[in-house]
Amino acid sequence: MSYSDIQAIDMALVKMIAKDFQPISIVENKGFLEYSKKLNPLYTPPPPNRKKITNEMIPSLYETCRNQLVSKLAAVEYVALTTDVWTSDTNSSFVSITGHYVYNNTLSSSVLETKQLVENHTGANIASAIAEVLENYSISSKVVTVVADNAANMKNAIEEHLKLPYQPCVAHTLNLVAEDGLSVSETLKDIVKKCRSLVGHFKSSTISTAKLQQAQDQLGLIALV
């Protein structure tokens, strides 16, 4: 097996980890190594270790994909954005920006970047993070609209700081409408409360869940839990 063949196999491994969100530690799992050996016995070197994948191969793949995306965006005339801010379980905050555009007469969407927000979620700080991403991809002058949720800081970031047209997310707006509709009806609020209580009971009791599944089987119903 040639060196180029080995490189191609190693890069396919890294792409699998990236596309399928696999843990990098998979390259050290005995089952994975045995499976890989069966697939191609001629592949004699061990797969790249976690350090090489983390420090060399994934950054290299990222740069390759980023450069390809920069080239695509250079060829398009308009770009629409969707963006959102969220906080992880570790209380780290991030803003993600996705671009939507027509390339070769085909509607395409690409995640441009997910950036960590180390400062408060003010409109100015969010706008600064988004502006940096747009500058990195040279599309600041191509953005025609930005879709985000109805949060005041997002609207402020887009309209007041970025000076771009803002479109509230339809799904988020419908969700707010549904929540408001449920909150004004005491009957609906009581029904929702009972439903949550039922779901909570079965989630916390394996015995009750087993009995429910048995009853569903007896009635010929599709299991809901």
Spans of at least 5 consecutive residues with low confidence: none
- What's the total number of strands? 5
Q: Beta-sheet strand percentage? A: 15-25%
How do the strands of the widest beta sheet line up side by side?
A: 3-2-1-4-5
Strand-pairing-aware structural class: alpha/beta
Average pLDDT metric = 91
Radius of gyration: 24 Å
Q: Describe the biggest sheet?
A: 5 strands, mixed
Oligomer: single chain
Secondary-structure element order, N to C: HHHEEEHEHEHHH
Rounded to the nearest angstrom, the distance between the terminal CA atoms is 50 Å
| Estimated helix fraction | 40-55%
Overall morphology: flat
Contiguous helical run count:
8
Description:
With 225 residues, the chain is of the alpha/beta class. The protein has eight helices and five strands. It has helices spanning 3-19, 30-39, 50-74, 123-136, 152-161, 170-183, 186-204, 206-219; strands spanning 79-87, 93-103, 106-117, 143-148, 166-168. A five-stranded mixed sheet has the order 3-2-1-4-5. It starts with a helix and ends in a 6-residue tail after the last helix.
Which secondary structure elements does this structure contain, and how are they paired or packed?
Blueprint: H1 3-19, H2 30-39, H3 50-74, E1 79-87, E2 93-103, E3 106-117, H4 123-136, E4 143-148, H5 152-161, E5 166-168, H6 170-183, H7 186-204, H8 206-219
Parallel strand pairs: 1-4, 4-5
Antiparallel strand pairs: 1-2, 2-3
Helix pairs in contact: 1-3, 4-5, 7-8
In short:
GO terms for molecular function: zinc ion binding. The chain has 225 residues and is α/β, with parallel strands linked by helices.
